[in-house]
Write a structure and sequence with these properties.
This protein is an alpha/beta fold. The strands form four sheets. The chain has a five-stranded antiparallel β-sheet. A five-stranded parallel β-sheet has the order 12-13-14-11-15, with helices on both faces. A three-stranded mixed β-sheet has the order 3-4-10, with helices on one face. It contains 18 helices and 15 strands.
Length: 501
């Protein structure tokens, strides 16, 4: 499924770890994305009891002026598991880690030798005068060469894994950390860290030495590898999913960086953008971009629609605007406020003397006043306005200081449409394809589809896909037999149908 460089299926690598099927989705791209901020891995994965939650992230940081990829995993369990393998040697401190590495490197290790690894490591730590971390009493570790081999592989790759845990009334918490210089990081490092995390899951579940508890389970590692089945695409959208607008996305990433580093901004006396105006034809993705910005900076998203402001009674619209901004000043979380179809809310403030013109001028005046003081009173709010008709908006409303950034969102060109088609189809594949069910046929060509869709917007392309999906689902529902995957011919017909209306 490729077309002139548009790969519709993400690069994947599948490995088996402790009986579980693990799929790495675009590992190299994932590691690159970590340079822009933390990337959450295994966000929606389910683990065996008593493991309650696994938070696994990768990010970059500077260590002694050297960019470094840092992997962090935090595991919580409802009750303490057995202490064996990695957890046993971690109790013994640095000497235990070193001993585990050497034991795993041996070709022939007797059962008693591995079983006594924890005791020997603890004794070595005591004689070296090292103090092991406080934790539960060291239990007799079971023979688990697989777990020791995992640790040895991570050491050989230069990850320098650090494993710690704490047991309290609420259960057990385990941390697994590793770091490698960014110039040297590869998908192999990611695989090794995943193996360490799954080994810790096994031990928390009391599953050593036999890897039974993970057998038959599947895990996907990637930024969007396991989206919630019920999450609407518009609510979960990120800047990575925006196609055909590379310059706009780059500008939004700059805004996100300025928002996420207030101390740096303050040190330089820099003022980040307070307002953003996006204008362009309908269906080009303006609302989606606003949602993506909110997700990029981890902000709440609130959309103010025309009926929430406009009131037929004199003075009602002004009161509504004041109330909206009054609430905005009280937001305790970073928030992106979207005024969609801004021109319908704040029309051009004309100079007419009739009652209608005076009402329009009053609404525009209140909006100006509120924008003038919002940033100083609550800098965690970004105001975004969208319009299809920028000429209808008074220039004084959107001047710099109120709306510092003004972005044209055009209808996508052919390469932009190809990128949009690729991203939309890949999103559908990620969401819906499962073993035994293939949603799109191998002949789907994004470049050809882009050539067939001049003038179409992103919304139009999504409608084409919706029609094809519906047609396939209805055919399967009425005929009672599985429908064939969506083919290039199916998509051509849907495009023609959309043009016919």
């Amino acid at each position: 499924m490729t077309g002139h460089g548009y790969d519709l299926r993400p690069d994947t690598e599948t490995v088996t770890l402790f009986g579980a099927r693990v799929t790495l989705v675009e590992a190299a791209a994932l590691l690159t994305a970590a340079g822009a901020g933390p990337v959450e891995l295994l966000a929606h994965a389910a683990f065996p009891d008593p493991v309650r939650q696994v938070r696994f992230t990768v990010r970059t940081e500077n260590r002694a002026g050297r960019p470094t990829h840092r992997f962090d995993a935090h595991l919580t369990a409802d009750r303490p598991g057995m202490t064996a393998g990695l957890l046993a040697v971690s109790l013994a401190g640095p000497a235990g880690i070193l001993l585990a590495h050497r034991l795993a490197a041996l070709e022939h290790v007797g059962g008693g030798m591995v079983a006594g690894a924890g005791r020997v490591a603890a004794e070595a730590t005591r004689r070296l005068g090292l103090r092991p971390p406080a934790a539960a009493p060291l239990a007799e570790p079971a023979r688990d060469p697989a777990g020791l081999a995992v640790l040895a592989e991570a050491e050989e790759l230069g990850l320098a894994p650090v494993i710690g845990h704490d047991t309290g009334p609420g259960g057990r918490t385990v941390t697994v950390r590793g770091a490698v210089p960014s110039a040297e990081v590869t998908p192999a490092h990611l695989r090794a860290m995943v193996a360490l995390v799954l080994q810790a899951v096994r031990e928390l579940a009391g599953d050593t030495p036999e890897p039974a508890v993970l057998r038959g389970r599947s895990y996907a590692i990637g930024r969007h590898a396991e989206p919630p089945a019920t999450a609407p695409a518009s609510a979960a959208v990120t800047l990575d999913q925006v196609g055909g607008l590379a310059e706009v996305v780059a500008r939004f990433r700059e805004i996100a960086v300025s928002f996420c580093h207030p101390q740096v901004m303050a040190r330089w006396g820099a003022r980040r953008p307070q307002g953003i105006l996006m204008y362009g034809p309908p269906g080009t993705g303006k609302t989606m971009l606003a949602r993506a910005l909110a997700n990029e900076i981890g902000a709440d998203f609130t959309e103010i629609r025309t009926p929430e402001i406009l009131d037929k009674y004199l003075g009602g619209s002004e009161r509504n605007i004041k109330q909206i901004f009054r609430e905005a000043r009280r937001y305790r979380q970073p928030t992106v406020m979207l005024f969609d179809e801004f021109d319908s809310i704040i029309s051009y403030a004309g100079a007419g003397g009739d009652a209608a013109s005076q009402a329009v001028n009053a609404v525009a005046g209140i909006f100006k006043q509120e924008m003038n003081t919002l940033f100083e009173e609550n800098p965690d709010v970004i105001v975004v306005a969208t319009t299809n008709f920028p000429q209808r908006v008074d220039a004084s409303l959107i001047r710099s200081g109120r709306f510092d950034i003004k972005l044209a969102i055009p209808t996508p060109d052919e390469s932009g449409r190809a990128e949009i088609i690729t991203k939309m189809i890949r999103e559908l594949i990620d969401r819906h394809e499962r073993p035994g069910f293939r949603m799109f046929a191998a002949d789907v060509d994004a470049a050809e589809l882009a050539a067939l869709t001049p003038g179409l917007t992103g919304a139009d392309i999504r409608e084409v896909l919706r029609r094809v999906q519906l047609a396939k689902a209805m055919r399967e529902a009425t005929e009672g037999a599985p429908a064939a995957p969506i083919s290039q011919d199916d998509l051509r017909e849907a495009v023609a149908g959309l043009r016919r209306g």
